[in-house]
Amino acid sequence: MLSPSRAYPAAFERLTTPSLRQLGRIASLSVLAAFADGCTAPPPSPFAGHNPSDPSVRTPAVRDGSTVAPYVSRRPADPVPWSQQNEQVAPPPKPAE
Fold it and tell me: I need a surface site. Which of 22, 27, 50, 67 has the fewest CB within 10 A?
């Protein structure tokens, strides 16, 4: 009765624990893949215009612009009744039929 219960953990451990031979294969394949990747040519650089490392390439002129040019002062105003404010922004009433 106890033999199946002892056999299951041993079989489970054998399935989950890789052997040294498997680890050696994985390590050698990883090293081989790293060496093969190092022997390939570098990928081409994406072409989105002129080469930035070329000093003879013309560039657009730099212009100076104000960062606060559209500023409008927002000083506190006197309180106004809310109904008057709503009437100013409300759509016109529809004509009666």
Answer: 67
**What average pLDDT is seen over the chain?**
78
Q: Where are the domains of the chain?
A: 8-38
Query: Given CA atoms 86, 88, 89, 95 in this order, what sign does their dihedral have?
Result: positive
**What pLDDT was estimated at residue 81?**
82
Could you tell me which residue, 19 or 16, shows the higher pLDDT?
Answer: 19
**Cβ contact 57:50 at 8 Å:** yes
The CA-atom distances, in angstroms, between 61 and each of 25, 53, 54, 64, 94 are: 59, 18, 17, 10, 55
